[in-house]
Amino acid sequence: MDQISLAVNGRTDIGQVREENEDSIRWHACADKPFAYIVVADGMGGYTGGATASKLAAETIQTHLDNLLKHTFIACSPEQQQLILRATLIDAINNANTALLNTKNRNPQLANMGTTLVVAVMWHNLLIVAHIGDSRAYLWNNYGLQRLTRDHSVVQEMLDSGQISPGQAKQSGVRNHITRALGVSASVEAEINSWKLTENALLLLCSDGLTEYLDDHAIERILATHRPALECVYRFIDDANKLGGRDNISAGILEYASRPLPRMHIEEQNITQRPRSPDVTVRKLQR
Q: Could you list the residue ranges that cross the membrane (predicted)?
């Protein structure tokens, strides 16, 4: 069995152009259990609407995750825990979507609001990521950088169908047009995937205010070289601002570290009584 250490950090920034920050971010690492999460939401629909949508979504997801580690969850098998984690994320996302729709109904001035969402949850070595829209999750380890999410966007669909090249996608006038969001329709379909981590890794969650300026190569270079690792969030935001900062920028880092538990030291004892039979001695040492 390995000893797992989880640490998280996050930051959101208004950028250089916007008058209000429509991003929201939440993060948490449990002090006494191998449990941590990051939530990033990028709101849309005008200054007040976008900020309201992202905050409401992030707070709803946060509340569900903060209530997860109840006695029944801890007592379950790893297979059951994985199912519970997935079901919790689905319920949280559906409840966030309902909360946004109800808020819009009560406040006509917020009729156009909505938000993207990306959330990552770690429990022991299990990683679960859910996302809606174009906020992203990346995993970096000694094998390099892996993008864990695929944008729900018009440009991504054009890339998938071969209509445009990656170079053309960066210049596209519709690169910020998303095809899925929270708070837009009565039902919402999040994409949810899970992985078992087998080595030390860094997880990055971010809004498109970061990926607008930093491509995968730039992200990988920072994650691979900037230490302490949790301070990458400041480096990411500083770099995006230096390159223009036209949008709000949010970044969250989760550091996963695993090492073998130290082997128990068995001291030899002097036995003065009558020697035991070999099989009894073996049983005693293995107890």
A: none
